[in-house]
Amino acid sequence: MENVRSSLKVTNEQALLVHLALPKASLGPAESLDELASLAEAAGADVVWRMYQKRRTPSAPLYVGKGKAEQIAEQAKKVDADVVIFDNDLSPAQIRELEKIINCKVIDRSELILDIFASRARTHEARLQVELAQLEYTFPRLTRMWSHLDTVVGAAGGAAGAVGGIGTRGPGEKQLEIDRRLVNKRLTVLRRELEHIDRRKQRLINSRSEHFTVSLVGYTNAGKSTLLKCLTGINVYIADQLFATLDTKTTRWNLDRDIHVLLSDTVGFVRDLPHHLVASFRATLEETLNADLLLHVVDVSHPQAEIQLHAVNRVLKEIGCNEKDILLVFNKIDRPVDHLPSRSVRDTLMTLYPDALCVSARTGQGVDNLHQVVLQRVTGQKLHLRITCSYNDGRAAGFLRAHGEIISENYTENDIILEAWLGQRQLPGLQRLNPRSCDILCL
Ligand SMILES: Nc1nc2c(ncn2[C@@H]2O[C@H](COP(=O)(O)OP(=O)(O)OP(=O)(O)O)[C@@H](O)[C@H]2O)c(=O)[nH]1
Ligand SMILES: [Mg+2]
Fold first, then answer.
1. What's the pLDDT score for residue 11?
2. How many domains does the chain have?
């Protein structure tokens, strides 16, 4: 399947970027092209030119107008581009037609993002997920590669006799059939393996049901991994690049003497994340789905912070997490934002979301406050409890010692009687252990 990846690989390629400015776009052409350039660079390409066209609606055959496509072809030739990257999704037919006119490789935004994921995926699971998404997305587009192959076969046949006639179409189609079958077979294997991983992951998540779980979510490059490192001290990969993290890392975060939670860092989101990618990464995102609390990290020093915040909310909705308990964390407040528009974006966000917690994961500023707020969320209101449990089953007593503050311990002939403070949210965990009695003395 290396075929698929290398056919899209844009590393060290000279890229020409194209954006179609439609009336209701959330970003202007310059900002959209900036983001596309960051994505292209993250894939290892050198951006040599940017173009855009304003239209009311996309044109069905070529997405851009015919005249624009010809201009792109001219420019691509002038700057010696190896690849033309469109800032949106294109249908296989549009790609085929554009490639005919532009005469070089054309890829769309989803293919680009899939390519970045393919180059970054490190674990077995992430690799499988990316491969599945790539095959599902690129599969319909694969025919275009084989139809090129067909042309090559046709041309070769032409040298020997009739161009593209009987005898030259057969091998191409046969090849296509074989490759289609191979891809389908591979898709079945990948889906089966991922289902297996999914079940294992689900068991892992279930085994954590005793713990309070917190997930870091946010736009790519917002500083989630830096915050994970700052809060827990764990060494994780941090880089000023899009999609540095593709796997989930879960680690223990000590909030208080006896209180800890499990904190997970996961893959970042981006505007219009390819649907296949979200579907394939479901198992990875599953941890987010199951978290008790989400920390939505926003890089407030970014000029597009507000758009990024909404883009993340959209993905959260797509994966069914929008109803969760979410704390907004405004990161990178150490960065000077003297220049507009960054300053006004930051000010607007702080006014719109007065409850957001402002931190710097790099300097540690505001992190104590974040700590306290999460602690409060974890424990909930403190309850004064008295429990009785037998010597034979001391699990409830153990739970109270681990998660509450013991006020007194008394021992009778058969039982242990404990009085303690415990956060309201931890009460169900205690009750699940079936102590002989459990009374709330006062709030
Ligand atoms: N100035 C400043 N830079 C930060 C801060 N937090 C993170 N960064 C930088 O922002 C860049 C991205 O940080 P990461 O922690 O890798 O971001 P991420 O959200 O995990 O990114 P992905 O894994 O790619 O989604 C790195 O260069 C960090 O050093 C901060 O509070 N202040
Ligand atoms: Mg990261």
1. 59
2. 4
